Amino acid sequence: MSSKKKSVKKVLFYLALGFIFLIFAGITVVLIWASNGYEAEYEVRSYIEDEGNPDERTGLSFGSGDETTGVIVYPGGRVDHKAYSYLAYRLSEEGYFVYVPRMPLDLPVLNMNRAGAVMEKYPQVDNWYVAGHSLGGAMGAYYTSNHPETVEGMIFLASYPGNDLTGSGVPVLSVYGGLDGVSTPEEIMERDDRLPEETTYVEIPDGNHANFGWYGAQRGDLESPLTPQEQQDIVAEEIARWIEGR
Fold this sequence. Notes:
alpha/beta, 7 helices
């Protein structure tokens, strides 16, 4: 073998080695970034112990299991699914079966079709609504647009769709906070052309982004005079009012 061919093979070897290193470095960065997300605060965990049915592998369910209407709540990006336990509990008090799925690395983008598996697991529920906070809402919208026949309604919580739902035939509720510094009211209203005419908007004037869950302050958000419990009480009432009014 000529020295020229040896040199080429050596260069290709080191290029391949460098490429593999970059892949592993990128994966490591993503894992570190995802693992440093937002954990559920201590106060909300009592609702899991007292009212919820936790499964560490798949998620949390609230309700007796005999309900005919269910709500699947997609968590926000990098947010512990347990942070939505109080909201799920409050919705179950309104008479709904509620499921909060655990997402891979707490990123709903890695399992946007999770709602389908939940529906299969609980066939006794006749009418399903898909809800999602922040990135969870956007991913829930993708599921809804691809499976409109399985969803009675889509609920955005401080969120908006990345895709077009205008032709889905699925009614939409959009609940947002007036003090949201992450998904601002202006950003939400700018995406109204992606939503069907049958969309109901509800603003919580003193609400912010993080209070849709219970995981503490979020970077870039504005301070709210409401506690997470107070804001989520409002959210649960608005969702129940909208579902019952349909």
